[in-house]
Structure formats: structure tokens, C-alpha cells
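Subject: for your reference before the review

Hello V.,

The reviewers asked for a structural picture of the protein, and I figured it would be easier to keep everything in one thread rather than splitting it across files. Below is the amino acid sequence we used in the manuscript, unchanged from the supplementary table.
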Amino acid sequence: MKALVKERAEAGLWLVDVPEPVPGPGEVLIRVLRTGICGTDLHIRKFDDWAQHTLKLPLIVGHEFSGEVVEVTPGVEDISVGDLVSGEGHLVCGKCRNCMAGRRHLCRNTVGLGVHRDGAFAEYVTLPASNVWVHRTPVDPDVAAVFDPFGNAVHTALSFPLVGEDVLISGAGPIGLMAAAVATHVGARNVVITDVSPERLDLAAKLGVSLALNVGQTSIADGMRRLGMREGFDVGLEMSGNPQAMRDMIASMTHGGRIAMLGLPAEEFAIDWATVVTSMITIKGVYGREMYETWYNMSVLLEKGLDLSPVITDRFSYHDFDAAFDTAASGRTGKVILDWSGGARPERARHEPTKAEAAATIDTSGGT
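And here is what came back from the structure prediction:
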């Protein structure tokens, strides 16, 4: 089969032929239909310091995907050949204290798909059945492919109650955009998202935010005045990992405000802890998805009409992976999708849909 492999300890990825994986006990074999390019994949392609100290080569990369089940091993229940599925890319040990207590997202022994074991940028991938999420209602395979980052957005956004609250989101990358869509959908009063990319702020405006603010030109305080806000934000969602963005967020919170921080800084940085203390601000670190409460939340949000289609801006055949990665690295787009089912969309008419694709009623307005 074809797969995108990190073959050598240098920048780049290579599309090569590798053996098709064989599912082990309790695993499922999945034919990959779509994959999403993540920031982690960009780090791996660049082979930066993190990648150099984390990866064991060669490695098939990728962890965001949707696909069709083609084989289940004996003993696997509730998953059938032909099901459209996504995958939870964090494989946990099941034996540590947190796993035994049902807090699997806090497992200290987590293994990452496409990081610590061969991933999903391939024609086929295997996963433990416990990590396979079956889409029981019709979902566009493109949207199903981004359930991993969508889960990050939902986990972060729903860390604190949002109904009627004023929400500040720093970073209008794909996950920040999805978090903005969630906050708006569930009933936040004002949703303000900040960035310096005009293209991404334009995408945010399409998602119905109250204000998409270019902080290179306008301050958050000015934005609050435009919205008639007299006090600070109730909830902050930090998605950028940018030190100044975090400092500005802390300075913009109301007393008793709560911040969920998903953005991963490149290095340590200082913040105004005196304001955190005297304003009684809560800061919560967020990583991955709660298994599997977040997955239920995602599916229900889509069932109830949440539209993620504006977030997916670019689609490529996997043969054009270099162009796709360059687009994702530009910092000017939403989510970038690789099509593994027979070519990019202009050529799709030449191929019969898979069973899973045929079952998914695609509605670009967000309905099913």
C-alpha cells in the first residue's frame, strides 16, 4: 500500500510502498478515506527539535482520519465491516490509576498514533477496537476526518459553562475556529476571536462570531468597547500558545474568570500572576479529548446542526501531499484534507463511492 513515511532524520516526508498492516487481537483494519493535516504533522515534516527527540524512524505519520472498516478480529463487538469511522489517536494503557478510574485522557503512558506507532497517512491503518469511533448517523467523511482536532476544540470549549457568557478565543487556527463555532452554537453571548491573519479572521466571521479581531491593528479593550462590554470576559479559550496572547487574555478577564488553555507554547514564559491571584482567575490546561465523553459531545453537536464546513478550506489528493503541507504551513487557511479514496474532488466522479461514503449524506450547509 501507499503511505506517507518519515524515512530519514531530515526535513521531508516520502510517499512509498509499505506492507499493508495486519490487525492484531482486538483490533480493526480500516481503509483510510480522508486525513487531516495537524500541526504535529508539520513538526514531523520539518523534523524540528521535538520531532528529533520523539520519533523512532521509519514511521508512517498522521493521526486525523476517517475511513471504512474492512476487517474486524474475533471478539470485537459493535463494529461492522462497512462502518464509517474516525479514530481516537491516544492509545492508553488501561492499567494506571487514571485509566482504572475512567480518566483515560489522563493516562501517563499514552501512545500517540502517527507519533509513537504507525499512523493513518496510508491506504490502511489498524487501531484497537476501543479507539474506533463509529459514526451512527450520516457524517461527511471530510468532517469525520477532523474529529480529532474537533475534539480538542470541544474539550476546551466545554471545560466551563458558556451559556450567556462572554468568551474570548485567542488564535483563529482550525481548532480555534471550531471552538468559536461551538461557543456560538451552545449559546455564548459574545464570542470574540483574535489573530493576526486576515484570511483566518475572515473564516471566523463566517462562523458567526460577534467579533473577529486583528490584534495587530486593534486592542482587545477596543473590541470590548465596540460590543458594549462593561466588564471583562467570563471565559477564555487560549488556542495559540503565544505568550502575548495569554498575557492579553489574563488582562481582559473579569474577576472570577476562567481560562482553558490548549495552545502549546514553544518555551516557558512569564505571566502576571498577581492579576491571576487578585482577580481569582482559574487556568485549566487541556490536552486531547476526554475519552469518550468528548466524542459523544461532538456527534451530538453535529446532529443538532453545528456546521463545520467553513473550517475545511483546502482538499488535495494524497499524491499532492507536499502542496497540501505547504498550504497547511502557510498560516492562512483552515483545515487541509488529504483524499485517499481515489483523488482530489475534481476527479472524484471517476470513482465509485465506498459503502461508507455512500451512507454519508453530504450537506454543505451543515445538515445531514
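For the response letter, the relevant points are probably these. The first helix runs from residue 39 to 46. The domain at 2-146+308-359 is CATH 3.90.180.10 (Quinone Oxidoreductase; Chain A, domain 1).

Happy to draft the paragraph if you're swamped.

O.
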